[in-house]
Amino acid sequence: MIPRQMTRTELDTALDWAAAEGWNPGLDDAEAFWQADPQGFFAMEDQGQMVAAICVVNHDQAMAFLGLYICERSYRGRGFGHALWQHALGHAGSRSVALDGVPAQQQNYARSGFAPAGRTVRLAGPLPAGEATGISPARLEDRATLSALEAKACGYFKTAFDQQWFSDTHSRHTLVHHDGGVIDGLVTLRACRDGFKVGPLVAPSTEVARALLAACAEQSGGAQVMIDVPDDARDLAALCADLGLRQVFSTTRMYRGAAPLTGSGLHAVATLELG
Q1: For 55-110, what is each residue's pLDDT tens digit?
Q2: Of 10, 165, 168, 172, which has the most beta carbons under 10 Å away?
Q3: Coiled-coil segments, which residues (predicted)?
């Protein structure tokens, strides 16, 4: 079996596999993922069928992100996934590569040169009602501003991904906070196979983050909401705890190569699959 590029239709299959593993992808994730870097999705094939999947998406000239690493159950433990992993990493070239790894796989990732840089904690629960003061829907013409805000928070640009992610669909919506007519905070809420996920969230203060999450509460209607918070965003984690969200699992952010310089303020991860 030889690794090859994935087709767009196979990405839908990979996300179905992810759902079966409990990763709970969003209902409209596939197209935004694909448009981030259509050349960055890879598959291992056996007798005309995809048996393993992975993505290494090149976000900018310095940073790539690895995710959606999954092998069909009957093919696990036979070396097919590792061969695909090695092939896909070549797509990053000289870029640093990031991933969010579960504890059981971190030693395997370390053998490929990935070093831990901190935890990401998933907090979950229904969001309580609150005052969504200063919040309005994002406009298409805001996307460059939103991309720059998130790049300042996470340390690198995801321009192609953001162009799709910050464009509303029937199940994904981005909201912004204005201060004196200037956007200083944002949040994206997307419906998933089960409940909703928040991400990214960028806010200059706890008060702005609280307003953004109150707006998410209005849209999620009491359903389960999940948010992935880096461990250096302690004020956001404390706010989520105050709102009644509880930890359900964690991953470790790991880098092969130099880690980016993240910004101050409150920040939640857009997606564990693409950063």
Answers
A1: 999 999 999 999 999 988 767 766 667 889 999 999 999 999 999 999 888 898 99
A2: 165
A3: none
Q: Where are the domains of the chain?
A: 3-117, 122-268
The 3-state DSSP class for residue 9 equals helix
CATH placement of domain 122-268: 3.40.630.90
Distinct helix (H) and strand (E) counts, the chain: 8, 13
Q: Please tell me whether residue 187 adopts helix, strand or coil conformation.
A: strand
Give 121: exposed, middle or buried? Use CB within 10 Å, 0-12, 13-18, 19+: middle
Distance of CA 62 to the CA centre of its chain: 18
Indicate the burial class of 171 (C-beta count within 10 angstroms; 0-12, 13-18, 19 or more): middle
**CB-count burial class (<10 Å; 0-12, 13-18, 19+) for 92:** buried
* Nearest partner of 166 among 180, 147, 193, 192, judged by Cα: 147
How would DSSP label each residue in 141-162?
GGHHHHHHHHHHHHSS--HHHH
How many residues does this entry show for the chain? 275
The helix or strand, by DSSP H or E, that contains position 177, with its residue range, turns out to be strand 172-179
Cα dihedral 29, 30, 36, 37 in deg (nearest 10): 150
Q: Concatenated DSSP letters for 76-88?
A: TTSSHHHHHHHHH
Nearest to 235, CA basis, from 211, 207, 212, 214 = 207
Protein fold of 3-117 = Aminopeptidase (3.40.630)
Tell me the pLDDT tens digit for each residue of 140-161: 999 999 999 999 999 999 999 9
Q: Are 3-117 and 122-268 equal in CATH topology? A: yes
Q: Please tell me whether the peptide bond between 200 and the residue prior to it is cis, using omega within 30 degrees of 0.
A: yes
